[in-house]
Every structure is written in structure tokens, then in C-alpha cells.
Design brief:
The strands form four sheets. A seven-stranded mixed β-sheet has the order 6-7-4-3-2-5-8, with no helix packed on it. The protein has 25 helices and 22 strands. Helix 9 packs across helix 24 and helix 16 packs across helix 24. It is an alpha/beta fold. It folds into four domains: 105 residues, OB fold (Dihydrolipoamide Acetyltransferase, E2P); 191 residues, P-loop containing nucleotide triphosphate hydrolases (Rossmann fold, 3-Layer(aba) Sandwich), CATH 3.40.50.300; 157 residues, P-loop containing nucleotide triphosphate hydrolases (Rossmann fold), CATH 3.40.50; 54 residues, no CATH class. The chain starts with a helix and ends with a helix. The structure holds adenosine-5'-diphosphate and magnesium ion. The site of adenosine-5'-diphosphate has 15 residues, from helix 12.
Length: 696
């Protein structure tokens, strides 16, 4: 591989400086290695010849075999084209050329047998092919069997660089190599049952057997994912061996009193497991960086409280940061109530906190009399100084962003342990890749006794029934959410439908007070409206997705989602999680336009069938791809994914993760001779990314 990497494509037979420049700028192919790593997106079977009378519908690019009956030039000047009438004996088609007419006329004869390779299209009721590849029936290409089709740009095509050229150059490189050195250690290939790189590259560019092609694909996918896992794990190991963290050995009064007296219920098995994982982390002397993933309502708050008490029992402070004032306030209220019997001092700091309260908090923090600070972004402002911060919890991490997280508490000499809690479940295998530098815990069990939220799909024509059912819940004293999509907070149209919705709701339910929030409101107004609903003053909340992030109103039992077809599954799941927080049966009603596609209907129906956030996240990813997550991840990553797909290759990710763990356990620095090719490969990839990013 190394030799191929240092071989500039300019010197590959048939390329030369001009084309090399094109390949570099258009496809980021600079070396022979890059060229071999440029894989076909699909294949065309050239062992098959189609009958023209079998053409129907949308035909693929294919081969036909026959003779030209005649050639006619029509039109003039720039509009001139050459039309050849071609027949295979079953029927005739028009073959059309717009360019190079003179040379085509010179080179093609009637009555000679040719194989044409192109995509048939219907034009004015007649089948035609434009600019097909023309071969003699005996030529190597015409009988070459399965051939790769490469992703190319328009610029390359107009300069005459097509799949066939690429194929020839790649074949040339492959023919000149004896055997390509495998960057993956043999032990890895063997235990994962993988094809070696030499075979895999030959097969991927010119497969002759579908089974073998599958194996080559698997090998190349695995390889990409394996590099990522090795890289992530090494970073993580390095962080663990280099970063210093507070040791919190004592389980003391606060924790014990809390556990014995304040816990209103038995912890779930999953909560216990995660608490144990955190406990193990804070004993190592390394800084903890742990992500806790748990579905809405899985009880993350309790886990956070116990983690914070670990710090308090060791004479240190803790903080919990939430993304909104409402959430921070809710956390503060429930946590200070929970901890009342323990004597732990808890305070709330938000943007709107008054100056004298703020001063008292600052003093308490510096003096060490304040144990736990709960708040918004306000708690990471410059003037907030802890005496000794031991544990920092961040709730709903996705609102903070990874970069922000990295900057937190930089000023502390020894950084606090960090616990990130997210209710956006992402599939486990994806988490391994996206949060590869964090340790991940999962709360995969809901507290007992929860009634699954009854979810139904309803159409506009059924609106009256929906309102009737809603009325019944309101009369029983319950509260109701009605959510409208606001894809882009600036879209006037969306805002209008929201305001109209608000008016209709007020008219429909005149006996009840209706609160109203959307993203373009001022923060204070939003907070006030939310407070109206949280306090029970308002019984209905008409809102956009601003409520998505964790408000807790246990008395709310109905969630109506308007235009549900416009939301993603994970978002629907988050919204639905706003109800079902009390002991009573709750309902989620997905309102949809009637004429939706089969896919959309399937998506919505899945929501009515399961309430398992992980199942939903998995399905969402399979249907829509990893979306933003992949985007965020890929930027700043040295390794592209060409063959592997984060959404659908979960199994391979797991394989790669296991293999990477095994390998690094035996050779953490990759210093053994058998792992040298792998180390070189990783280094080369990082260098290459650095070079390209400097260019672009
Ligand atoms: P989330 O994970 O969404 O933040 P919370 O921590 O807000 O969930 O918990 C949701 C509700 O479940 C709260 O009312 C909490 O008191 C309750 N809860 C948490 N753990 C348990 C448990 N082990 N048994 C019963 N109820 C629990
Ligand atoms: Mg929560």
C-alpha cells in the first residue's frame, strides 16, 4: 500500500499530467492508492445481451448486439446529429450522436456486427440510445462480464473520462502489482474471517462472482470502520492514561442518607448498573467523561443526583447544567426537595437570577458552603467560581454541542468529572462511532408500572372525534399539548398555520385557558406561557417544537401532533415523551394529511406500534440515514466512509469495535512488527486529510 501511495497517478499508464490534474481536482485522487480506493457504486453485467423487443419501462444501461442499417445526418450547424438505424433482428432503434460525427461516420459500417452499450430511452414513442459505447462482438470489453460503474463528475465526462477509462487505469495498476500489502494485521483478518486486501481490491473493481463481491465489500467496509474504532479507542485510552481526575473514594452521609431515606422508590436494574459504572470511574484517578443515554422517563435525574452526591461526600461541589430556564427550575425544585433530608445545600442560578441572590451564590461557591449548583449556561460564566468542582452534569447534551462541552471548565486545574445525559437515543453502534471518545452508559429499562402511551394515527376527516376525546380528558382534569411543526422558525407560512391553530383551539375549547409558545417569542414571554401551563393555570398548550426539550408536567395526558407527517420519528418520540409521566393512561394522537406516501404511513404506523426509543431511533436511521449525526462526525474525521454506511452497517461496526478492542488490548501503541503496516496506514490517512484540508 505504501508503495502505491507514493506513486503519483501522473505516472500511471495512460493518465499523464493533464488527466492527473483533473483526477486530483475532481475526485481527490492523487496516488495509485487513491485510485484503487475509488470504488464502483454499482455494476453492469456485460455478459448479458438484451433483445430490443424486450425493452419496456425504465431500462438500465445495457448491451445489444446487431447491425446498422443506415446512417443519416439531420439538422445543421450546432444542431446537427447523426442517426444510425440499428437492428438486432427483433426490432430497430435509433442510435444518436451529437458530437464527433465525422469520425463516427468514418469508423462505423453498415452490415458489420457491433455490440452497443448504453441506456435505451423512449423518445417520441421510439426507443433510442445516445452516444453508446460501440465494440466489436469479440472485443475484451464486450465480453468482460460484470463491470464497475464509478461516480464521476460532468467535467470529467465531457473531457472523455468515463467509467471505462477509470477501469482500464485501475486494471493497469492492479496488473503491475504482485500482491498488495495488507494494512490489516493477519490476526484481525483471520479472526473476522475477512478477505485480504489484494483480493478484495481486485474483486471490487472486477467481480466475477456475487458471493465473492459480497465478501470484498464486507472486507472494505470493515476496514473503514476498523480504522475509526482503532483511532477512537486510542484517543480514549490516551485520555484515560494522561488526564488526571479527582478520586472520590468515600461513600458518605449524603449518599447513604439519600439512598436510605429519600429514594421514593427502588432503583431500576439499569439505574443501579449506571450508578455502579460512574462509581467505578471516579475511583480511577482519571477524569470521567461519560454519556448516559436513556429514553425519556427512564430516570436519568436520579442517576445524576447520585453522581453529584459522590462529589459532595468527598468534600467537593457538583453542578447540573440544563438547556433552558424552565428545565433548570424544574430540576432545582425536584432535586432540592429530594435532598432536603440530607442537609446538602442546593441553589439555582439562571440568567434572570437577581443580583443579591447571585452574590450569595458566588460567595457560597467560593466558600464551599454551597454543594450543588443547578442552572443554565449561567453557571459556566466567567465570574462563577467553584471552590472545588468535582462533578459536572450536563442534561440534554445535544443542545450544547460537542465543541462547547470541550471548552467547559477548562480553567480548572483538575477538571471535574463530566456526565452527559441525553434522551435522544441513537443506536448503540452509531454511538460507538459518534461518541467514541466518551464512555457510554445506557439506561435501557423504564421504571415499573408505566403504562405505555396509547398512540393513534388520525386524519383530518376524524378531527371532530379527536376533539371529543380530548374534551373528555380535559373534563377529567387533565392537560393537553397540541404541537405544530415549525421546520424553519422564519417561515411565515408555518407561523400563520400555528396562529390559526391557536385561534381554532381557543374557539373549540372555550372553557379552558390556552397557553401559546413558539420559537420567535422573547424568552421571558415564552417562560411565562410555559409557566402558565406547568402550574396548571392553562390546561392546553399550543406550541411548536420548543417544548421538545424535557418539560415535565405529569398531569398532561394528551399529546396531539399536527402534521405529524412532517416530523422525523425521533422527534415524534421526543414529543410523545412529554406525556405519560404520571400514573394515568396517556394518549398521543398523530394528525396527518390523508394523502401521504406509503413510506410516511409506515413511519407513522411504527409510532403507533412501539414506544421503545431505541427501536424508533434504529428505524429512523434506517429510513432517513444518520443525517446530522454523520455530518457532524465526518467533519473533523480523518477517515471517510466510502463503502460502509453508519445507518445500515451496525453489525460491521460491532465487529470492527470488538476487533479493535482485542488488538489494542494486546498492543496499545501498535508497536509490534505485525501491526506496523496498520500504524503506517493510520498515520498516512491522517496526513492525507491534513494535506487536503490545507488545499481546499
Ligand atoms: P428522564 O430520564 O426523562 O430525565 P426523569 O429522571 O425525569 O426521567 O424521571 C421520570 C420520572 O420517573 C420521574 O417522575 C421520576 O421520579 C420517576 N422515576 C425515576 N426513577 C424511578 C424508579 N426507579 N422507579 C419509579 N419511578 C422512577
Ligand atoms: Mg430529564
Amino acid at each position: 500500500m505504501n508503495r502505491l501511495r507514493s506513486l503519483d497517478i501522473t505516472y500511471v499508464k495512460g493518465i499523464g499530467p493533464k488527466r492527473a490534474e483533473l483526477l486530483k481536482t475532481q475526485l481527490v485522487i492523487a496516488s495509485a492508492c487513491d485510485l484503487l480506493r475509488y470504488y464502483p457504486t454499482h455494476y453492469i453485467d456485460r455478459s448479458k445481451v438484451y433483445r430490443i423487443d424486450s425493452f419496456e419501462g425504465d431500462m438500465p444501461t445495457l448491451q445489444v448486439r446487431g447491425r446498422f442499417v443506415s446512417f443519416n445526418t439531420v439538422g445543421e450547424g450546432a444542431k446537427m446529429r447523426l442517426i444510425g438505424l440499428f437492428t438486432d433482428g427483433t426490432r430497430a432503434i435509433d442510435v444518436v450522436w451529437f458530437k464527433g460525427i465525422a469520425s463516427i461516420k468514418r469508423n462505423l459500417q453498415t452490415e458489420t456486427e457491433y455490440v452497443l452499450f448504453g441506456k435505451p430511452t423512449l423518445f417520441n414513442g421510439r426507443w433510442q440510445m445516445t452516444h453508446p459505447e460501440v465494440e466489436n462482438p469479440g472485443s475484451a470489453l464486450a465480453t468482460s462480464g460484470v463491470r464497475g460503474v464509478y461516480p464521476l463528475t460532468e467535467t470529467l465526462r465531457t473531457r472523455g473520462i468515463g467509467s471505462r477509462k477509470l477501469q482500464l487505469w485501475i486494471q493497469g495498476v492492479l496488473d503491475s502489482c504482485n500482491r498488495i500489502e495488507d494494512p490489516l494485521p493477519q490476526s484481525v483478518c483471520r479472526s473476522a474471517g475477512l478477505m485480504d486486501i489484494d483480493r478484495a481490491l481486485r474483486v471490487i473493481h472486477a467481480p466475477s462472482d456475487p458471493k465473492e463481491l459480497e465478501q470484498a465489500r464486507l472486507r472494505l467496509k470493515f476496514e473503514e470502520l476498523f480504522y475509526i474504532q482503532v483511532d477512537m479507542l486510542r484517543r480514549n485510552n490516551r485520555r484515560k492514561s494522561e488526564s488526571v481526575g479527582h478520586v472520590l473514594p468515600r461513600i458518605g452521609d449524603a449518599f447513604n442518607t439519600f439512598y436510605a431515606k429519600c429514594l421514593p422508590f427502588e432503583l431500576t436494574g439499569a439505574q443501579k448498573r449506571v450508578v455502579r459504572e460512574i462509581r467505578a470511574d471516579v475511583l480511577t484517578g482519571r477524569q470521567m467523561n461519560r454519556l448516559v443515554q436513556g429514553d425519556v422517563g427512564s430516570g436519568k435525574t436520579l442517576v445524576a443526583v447520585m453522581a453529584m452526591l459522590m462529589a459532595v461526600d468527598n468534600g467537593m461541589q457538583a453542578c447540573l447544567m440544563a438547556p433552558t430556564e424552565i428545565l433548570a427550575t424544574q430540576h432545582y425544585e425536584s432535586i432540592s426537595e429530594l435532598l432536603a433530608p440530607t442537609g446538602v445545600c442546593v441553589r439555582l442560578l439562571k440568567g434572570s437570577t437577581r443580583a443579591n441572590e447571585r452574590r450569595a451564590i458566588h460567595e457560597g461557591l467560593r466558600a464551599g458552603t454551597l454543594d450543588i449548583l443547578i442552572g443554565t449556561h449561567a453557571i459556566i460564566e466567567e465570574d462563577v467560581q467553584f471552590r472545588n468542582l468535582g462533578m459536572a452534569v450536563i442534561d440534554e447534551q445535544h443542545r450544547f454541542g460537542v465543541a462547547q462541552r470541550a471548552r467547559l471548565w477548562e480553567k480548572n486545574e483538575v477538571r471535574p468529572h463530566v456526565l452527559v445525559m441525553t434522551a435522544t437515543p441513537i443506536p448503540r453502534t452509531l454511538a460507538m462511532t459518534v461518541y467514541g471518545d466518551l464512555d457510554v452508559s445506557v439506561i435501557d429499562e423504564l421504571p415499573p408500572g408505566r403504562k405505555p402511551i396509547a398512540t393513534v394515527l388520525r386524519y383530518e376527516t376524524q378531527r371532530l372525534q379527536v376533539y371529543k376525546a380530548t374534551y373528555a380528558q380535559l373534563r377529567e382534569g387533565r392537560q393537553v399539548y397540541i404541537v405544530y411543526p415549525l421546520i424553519d422558525e422564519n417561515e411565515k407560512l408555518d407561523l400563520r398555520s400555528l396562529t390559526e391553530g391557536y385561534d381554532i383551539v381557543r374557539e373549540t375549547f372555550p372553557d379552558y385557558k390556552v397557553a401559546f409558545v413558539h420559537g420567535r417569542m422573547k424568552a421571558e414571554e415564552k417562560d411565562w406561557q410555559m409557566q402558565q401551563f406547568a402550574s396548571g393555570e392553562a390546561r392546553i398548550l399550543v406550541a411548536t417544537t420548543v417544548i421538545e426539550v424535557g418539560v415535565n408536567v405529569p398531569n398532561a395526558s394528551v399529546m396531539i401532533i399536527e402534521n405529524a407527517e412532517r416530523f422525523g420519528l425521533s422527534q415524534l418520540h421526543q414529543l410523545r415523551g412529554r406525556v405519560g409521566r404520571g400514573a394515568d393512561q396517556s394518549y398521543c394522537i398523530l394528525m396527518s394529511r390523508p394523502n401521504i406516501s406509503a413510506d410516511t404511513r409506515r413511519r407513522l404506523e411504527l409510532m403507533t406500534q412501539t414506544t421503545d426509543g431505541f427501536v424508533i431511533a434504529e428505524a429512523d436511521m434506517n429510513m432517513r440515514g444518520p443525517g446530522d449525526i454523520e455530518g457532524t462526525m465526518q467533519s473533523g474525521m480523518a477517515f471517510d466512509l466510502r463503502m460502509a454506511n453508519l445507518a445500515t452497517d451496525g453489525m460491521v461496526i460491532q465487529m470492527a469495535r470488538d476487533a479493535a478492542e482485542r488488538l489494542l488490548a494486546g498492543d496499545p501503541e501498535l508497536s509490534q512488527a505485525a501491526n506496523a503496516p496498520l500504524r503506517r496506514e493510520l498515520e498516512a490517512m491522517v496526513r492525507r486529510t491534513a494535506d487536503w484540508s490545507r488545499i481546499s
